[in-house]
């Protein structure tokens, strides 16, 4: 369930970024989109709990509607006679269990197959690059290397197995140049080496691996594949932009020409490594030729976008109770017209509402600050929704032995009333299974 929630929320973020990118790719700093995709990757891979309304604890006749299943039952709550309802351990129907089991197996198999595909591609590419020979007798390259050394030692190699410059390695980066490349062209060398150096400084190879992990985990989500393609493309476009900002706008045409001359058909090697060659070459050239120094307004918009995306990533997604309260039959219209379901926003801001008898009611959001409401939103027999009393769910027992005895007494399960928010008007039944 958590994987689906993460994938869904990230998918919404991907759609928003895709629209913004389509409208403003040449109006905002290209680093903006790299940062936004980075936030998406975190959303896809970091299992932060999102209190999206879900239904858990399917029983033979009813289920509690909760906002978060991460709360652990208190040790004393072994007397919670619904066999671990608070821990989401209630029985599900055999059909639902089979469906979820099948989907889980399909997801695991798909992830493993995709992971093996990328792993085999990596091994083949790595072997090719390992055949590259050290490049040590070029004065121009040696001088550049001396001027641009980082804490991580950069090594230069040359290979006849590639047709475009490639950078690989994270902690010990290596720049591999094609043997066919003219190593006496000062300008071309400057463009290529500056481009690859930026990839190394930004750990772009590491981000490529992270994006591949995200694809393997969320392979079933087509929007994640869209993110993967655009993320890799924006890494290159952002790198091009930084090269132009360093070398000056008067080098745009020459840099674009160098890009065209070196661009070849993308090889499988680009799955893991950064290259100067083709990666949506047309979009890159358009971006280069439209490059202008970013103004204050552009920076401001970029900051706002990144902050907004960060908030979407970090802040729980709130949903109202009404949104998941469909009308089951026409006979329930009158009931739902009287049923009051407070939204999560209202509960978060004002606490649970109180009925005329002094009882709190609403969906149990399992907040560490707010106590459990007296009346908990639930779905009863035949899909009727209402409230069950917390006291009915958990009879008072003083020891584990009493709880076990109670369970034994009600071995076949039991029915409890389903109320309106007043806690008096019975509208249905809720079945608790052992």
Care to give the gist of this entry?
The protein is α+β, with helices and mostly antiparallel strands and 434 residues long. The chain is 48% helix and 11% strand.
Mean pLDDT: 75
Reported for the largest beta sheet, the result is: 5 strands, mixed
How do the helices and strands follow one another from N- to C-terminus?
HHEEHEHEEEHHHHEHHHHEEEHHEE
Instruction: Indicate the overall shape.
Output: elongated
- Note poorly predicted spans: 49-93, 265-269, 316-333
- Determine Rg (CA atoms, Å): 29 Å
In angstroms, what separates the terminal alpha carbons? 23 Å
Describe the structure.
The protein is of the alpha+beta class and 434 residues long. The chain has two domains: 260 residues, no CATH class; 130 residues, no CATH class. The protein contains 14 helices and twelve strands. The strands form three sheets. Strands 1, 2, 8, 9 and 10 form a five-stranded mixed β-sheet that branches. A hairpin with a 5-residue loop joins strand 9 and strand 10. The longest helix has 37 residues. The protein starts with a helix and ends with a strand.
């Amino acid at each position: 369930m958590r994987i689906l929630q993460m994938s869904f929320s990230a998918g919404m973020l991907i759609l928003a970024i895709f629209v913004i990118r389509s409208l403003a790719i040449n109006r905002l700093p290209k680093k903006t989109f790299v940062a936004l995709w980075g936030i998406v990757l975190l959303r896809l891979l970091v299992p932060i709990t999102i209190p999206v309304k879900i239904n858990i604890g399917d029983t033979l006749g009813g289920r509690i509607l909760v906002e978060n299943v991460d709360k652990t039952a208190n040790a004393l709550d072994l007397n919670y006679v619904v066999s671990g309802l608070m821990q989401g351990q209630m029985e599900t129907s055999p059909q639902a269990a089979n469906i979820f089991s099948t989907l889980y197996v399909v997801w695991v198999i798909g992830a493993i197959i995709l992971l093996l595909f990328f792993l085999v591609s990596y091994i083949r590419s790595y072997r090719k690059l390992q055949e590259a020979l050290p490049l040590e007798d070029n004065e121009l390259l040696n001088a550049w290397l001396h001027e641009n050394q980082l804490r991580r030692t950069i090594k230069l190699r040359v290979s006849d197995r590639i047709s475009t410059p490639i950078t690989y390695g994270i902690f010990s980066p290596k720049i591999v140049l094609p043997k066919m490349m003219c190593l006496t062209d000062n300008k071309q060398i400057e463009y290529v080496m500056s481009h690859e150096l930026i990839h190394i400084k930004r750990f772009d190879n590491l981000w490529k691996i992270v994006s591949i992990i995200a694809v393997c985990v969320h392979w079933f989500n087509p929007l994640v594949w869209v993110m993967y393609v655009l993320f890799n493309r924006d890494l290159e476009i952002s790198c091009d932009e930084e090269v132009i900002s360093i070398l000056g706008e008067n080098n745009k045409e020459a840099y674009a020409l160098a890009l065209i001359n070196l661009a070849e058909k993308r090889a499988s090697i680009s799955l893991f490594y950064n290259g100067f060659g083709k990666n949506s070459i047309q979009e890159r050239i358009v971006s280069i030729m439209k490059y202008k120094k970013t103004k204050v307004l552009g920076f401001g918009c970029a900051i706002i976008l990144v902050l907004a995306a960060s908030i979407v990533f970090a802040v729980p997604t709130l949903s109202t109770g009404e949104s998941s309260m469909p009308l089951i039959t026409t006979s329930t219209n009158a009931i739902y017209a009287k049923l009051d379901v407070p939204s999560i926003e209202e509960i978060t801001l004002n606490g649970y509402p109180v009925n005329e008898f002094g009882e709190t009611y609403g969906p149990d959001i399992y907040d560490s600050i707010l106590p459990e409401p007296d009346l908990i939103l639930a779905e009863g027999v035949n899909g009727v929704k209402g409230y069950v009393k917390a006291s009915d769910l958990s009879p008072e027992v003083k020891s584990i032995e009493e709880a076990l005895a109670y369970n034994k007494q009600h071995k076949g399960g039991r029915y409890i009333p389903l109320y309106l928010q007043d806690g008096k008007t019975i509208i249905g039944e809720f079945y608790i299974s052992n």
